[in-house]
Design a protein that fits this description.
Blueprint (H helix, E strand, L loop, with lengths): L9 H16 L31 H11 L8 H10 L2 H10 L14 H19 L9
Enzyme class: transferase
Protein name: NAD(+) ADP-ribosyltransferase
GO molecular function, one term: NAD+ poly-ADP-ribosyltransferase activity
């Protein structure tokens, strides 16, 4: 979002932020990271701001091209489709067209803990589905 508010002092800004955080997440900001997931509310994600940010996508692409020249059995048209789907620059342009600020919302920088939680949930869903659970309450 591009909404910008001006405040008379720091206290007003902090209070407004805390009210907005409570409204959007259902959690008090002062709980310091010990938040409960609430249905139909946002939940803060853990982001990994590690030191691996020093290398950019172009450098990664060059490393991959130089070190991993693998022969593919896929037809050239399928190879082109795969390259298009996984093209980082295309993804960036698409996200920017939706006014998503990649510096404020660094996709791909989720913490390992956050990814592990997501994996656990997906594993539980897979078990429920493969066991034939048909009720929404189970899922």
């Amino acid at each position: 979002s591009k909404k910008i508010d001006e405040f008379d002092d720091e206290t007003d800004a902090i209070n407004t932020f805390q009210e907005l955080f409570l409204d959007k997440t259902g959690n008090e900001w002062k709980n310091g990271g010990k938040y409960k997931k609430i249905a139909k509310k946002y939940y803060p994600l853990e982001i990994d701001y590690g030191q691996h940010n020093n290398i950019n996508n172009d450098q990664i692409q060059k490393i991959l091209e130089n070190n991993y020249k693998i022969q593919s059995n896929l037809s050239p048209s399928v190879q082109d489709l795969i390259r298009l789907i996984f093209n980082v620059e295309t993804m960036k342009k698409t996200l920017l067209s939706f006014d998503i600020d990649l510096t404020k919302m660094p996709l791909g920088k989720l913490s390992k803990n956050q990814l592990n939680k997501a994996y656990q949930i997906l594993t539980q869903l897979q078990i429920l589905i493969s066991n034939g659970s048909s009720t929404k309450t189970s899922i």
